[in-house]
Predict the structure.
Amino acid sequence: MQSFMKSSGVYFTSESVTEGHPDKLCDQVSDSILDSILDKDPMGRVACETAVTNGLVLVMGEITTDCYVDITAITRNVVKETGYIRPEYRFDHESCGVMVSIQEQSPDIGQGVTQSLEWRRGSRDELDKVGAGDQGMMVGFACNETPEYMPLPISLAHKLCAKLAQARKENVVPYLRPDGKAQVTVEYCYGEPKGVDAIVIAAQHDPDVPAEKIRDDVYEAVVRPVVPSHLLEEVYSRQRLFVNTTGSFVIGGPAADSGLTGRKLLVDTYGGFARIGGGAFSGKDPSKVDRSAAYIARYIAKNVVAAGLADRFEIQLSYAIGVANPLSMFVESFGSGKVPDEVLLALVQKHFDTRPAAIIQNLQLLRPIYRDTAAYGHFGRDGADFPWERTDKAEALRQDAGLG
């Protein structure tokens, strides 16, 4: 990243996928099951994964709860809402099989989450009581190149995919089908976006639609409304807009590719601009630090950048299963910090509590908000009810750093 900030011309690419992509379909099923449980039992423990293939959805994992939810009905409803509603898609909500294989959470794991190592050693701080649901490392990132403090390539890729889905749902491009992808290459000069160099779109469609029509319609209905004209330059005229480059994309979704919860971690996070943690997000209740600590890490990073303390900022947290306090905390401002990184680390440690119970409490994570995270990214989303996207700590950080 240091060389990236010092180079006069580099290209960086990120991709996103639509809600109809098989992996994202799985994420939405898993998170919808989680939401249904949290709505009835906020203390439920959920680690739910989904796999899809042609004609079949398999829901599996570990769930401990006092409530009942109809997993099969939830699954079919997600498949329907995602757009798989016609038999000619070779996968639809009425005819697909749904298999469920669920067991309770391991008691060995449960005891460490319910009573942390600190609690068992005598601490009576209530925020020490909950232990991390797993070991591992989680990463948060933010930068100031977009209003949402996200890297431009992944921001544009998400918006293109969301627009592709919107064009389908609103019949703006009526022949579109649910599956799709977008990939954006951005040219950077000394760490600043200079222009969009290339756009790749994969748009599933009905048969017998000419390739040129799809390309023109996607450009007019999807690309032009999303990509600012000053960045778009001459992508279209220079033939750097690539749409359905195999020539046809009729067979898609689970009929063409299997899907699995958690397989799109770069799509869920920062598009490859930052390092990633060791675990995926969807289908996991917030006692699993794979999810909740990734959210607090994003919250920290975004507030540091929003405070003007750095142009780019990354933080890594690490945990041990059954232990409340993180084992390590690492920060990196990639040479863009207005104060030294060791000062940034001290500010973070002072202003943010990264114990699981504190994360859950401060970010209000026991609510059924997770289906909305399962497509188009967990971070940088306008209008979403994601507390980790707040910048309410920025002013206090700025004042404490002496930059007020």
About this structure: The chain has three domains: 2-17+151-252, 22-114, 136-146+264-399.
